[in-house]
User: What shape does this take?
Amino acid sequence: MADGLLLVSNLSVRFGGLLALDGVALEVRDGRSTAILGPNGAGKTTLFNAVAGAVRPSEGRILFAGDDITSIPPHRRCRKGISRTFQITQPFSGLNVIENVAVAIVSRGVPMAAALREAADYVAFVGLEAKSAAPARTLSTGQRKRLELARALATRPRLLLLDEVTGGVDQPSVPELLDLIRRLRVERGITVLVIEHKMDVLHGLADDAIFLDRGRVVTSGSMADIAAHDEVRRIYLGDADAAA
Ligand SMILES: Nc1ncnc2c1ncn2[C@@H]1O[C@H](COP(=O)(O)OP(=O)(O)OP(=O)(O)O)[C@@H](O)[C@H]1O
Ligand SMILES: [Mg+2]
Assistant: This one.
């Protein structure tokens, strides 16, 4: 096999009369960061859901580390090394930061005492030590995104799917979150697939990118190739928010 860790071919997802993904192909190479770009409603989150197993494709195939995972349930995909964060974060709001992460570790079959020790490592990695004992409901949006990352790390992923990590986060917190994404790969060797709505955010971070619109791949290549693509530019001219 080539160095494609995740290979998606001819993937279609239908919601009633809506074709949310239409024949999408994607290759995520091992050890690289790949961006999924595109305007609202393009199908970015649906693509994540199909890879993680939360929605069933009507057509197509998904290979992970050489295995066909198209039809296996989400928890088995997670055990194989696919983890994801959500566009809208979903912590256990009554549990504190360490406990939230420990729950994800316990679900791997680790006893609670050991899970709490391991959780401290992920909490430190995402820079939330000072908040270890704080209930999740007291965290800011940026801190909740960090907690979400720590919870995803707790499943020990090979491939991490990050849905709009910077979405809704105050501007001063964005560079630190981007640095965290970079460190996932450099320090932990995790392959990252990251969704962004805004074009400029991932310049210098993503090695490869694909641009989706209305369920189809408009173009794929380097970030620079995509930014220069005529159709991408035309789509973003009508979407001033994302182009900003
Ligand atoms: N569970 C669902 N049932 C019906 N339609 C859905 C469902 N999930 C997504 N859709 C529709 O599929 C299309 C793609 O949605 P998706 O959430 O994948 O877009 P997106 O690129 O992530 O957009 P955004 O940038 O707003 O997050 C949209 O038209 C959306 O309304
Ligand atoms: Mg989305």
